[in-house]
Write a structure and sequence with these properties.
13 helices; alpha+beta; binds zinc ion; two-stranded antiparallel ribbon; 8 strands; four-stranded antiparallel β-sheet
Length: about 350
């Protein structure tokens, strides 16, 4: 990646400008970030922005996200884009050289003799950690400063040496409220970029693929923890006893909104409730039930719940999901269920 046209890529650290930001100003900053005045040698700014969006609720009280957190997401995204979907991440050059990130991923694949369509989640933990480390060391050099500069120095403060970003609280509040729209803006420009640098045959279903690159197919670890360690033996929604072999793991706040797997958002349910609830919220009383459940887990084994989790944050995320278009409230009942629009 040459920085000639990409502003800010070589900054070692940056500090967000402390200033009042109106909604109009914030929209104009994000529109600018996704406009064609911003240069892209590779697709990495889109991937890094998605990593931030998908990690929003994992930020700590000071809105800090570590490079380890962000580049874990980032690596997962690119593992699936490059190796599973075979998408190039920059325009073809005369010498056919790929980006450093593409080389790191393909090298790990060859060295481990892994089959090409294996998903990132299926790799062994120590292998994931070592690949993420390589990606972080390479990619933090350019993308963190470049995205900072594209946001007119407003999105976050960062330090490459201490390896963190700290989100600007005003921007954070805006991002939580408009997460889905910002996600769509990012996908749209990202897809346009990928279509430009790839063959038509590899860009089939591109938007769907972008949206699902971090979707896990195997949530059985949560089933094991909740059923065995914390003895959840009843459906979280209807209270029916769970039968072995028919225990579903449900994202209480829909995955399509949160884009992340966290124990504090996972509940066990019967297949009927899981399938009928689908991509919807449930009434507020279930939020309070989940808070009680999480309190119980923290009391018994606090290490199972991320330290950035707070009861108040769960209530807020539920509220933010409503702000982001999750208007259907699903309620299980004795005779079936109801869906109400709010
Ligand atoms: Zn049920």
């Amino acid at each position: 990646m040459k920085g000639k046209t990409m502003a800010g890529y070589d900054l070692k650290e940056g500090f967000y400008i402390k200033q009042q930001l109106s909604e109009d100003k914030l929209w104009s900053i994000f529109s600018g970030m996704f406009s064609n005045k911003v240069s892209h040698d590779t697709s990495y700014k889109y991937g890094f922005f998605k990593s931030i969006l998908d990690s929003l609720y994992n930020a700590d009280d000071n809105l800090v996200l570590t490079f380890d957190q962000l580049f874990y997401k980032f690596t997962e995204i690119y593992w699936n884009l490059v190796l599973k979907h075979h998408l190039r991440q920059k325009a073809k050059t005369k010498d056919g050289r790929e980006t450093a990130l593409e080389r790191i991923l393909k090298d790990s694949l060859h060295r481990q003799e892994i089959i090409a369509d294996v998903s990132f989640e299926a790799l062994a933990d120590d292998l994931k950690v070592s690949i993420c480390h390589k990606v972080k060391m390479k990619c933090k050099e350019n993308v963190v400063g470049a995205l900072f500069r594209d946001s007119d120095d407003t999105l976050y403060s960062f330090s490459k040496k201490s390896e963190y970003i700290q989100l600007n609280p005003l921007v954070y509040a805006f991002m939580t409220k408009h997460k889905k729209i910002l996600e769509k803006m990012n996908y749209f420009e990202w897809a346009k970029y990928l279509e430009k640098v790839n063959e038509e045959s590899s860009t089939k279903n591109l938007l769907n693929n972008l949206d699902s690159i971090t979707l896990r197919s195997d949530l059985s670890i949560y089933r094991k923890i909740l059923f065995e360690e914390f003895e959840e033996h009843e459906c979280f929604y209807c209270g029916k006893e769970l039968k072995p072999g028919e225990i579903h793991v449900d994202h209480f706040i829909p995955w399509s909104f949160i884009k992340d797997d966290n124990l504090w958002n996972m509940v066990l349910s019967c297949p009927q409730c899981n399938l009928k609830k689908s991509d919807r919220l449930t009434p507020g009383v279930y939020v309070e039930n989940l808070i009680q459940r999480n309190d119980m887990i923290i009391e018994q084994n606090a290490s199972q719940i991320s330290s950035s989790y707070k009861n108040e944050k769960l209530r807020l995320i539920y509220y933010w999901a409503k702000c982001n278009g999750y208007h259907e409230i699903w309620t299980p009942g004795k005779k079936g269920y109801t869906i109400e629009k709010v």
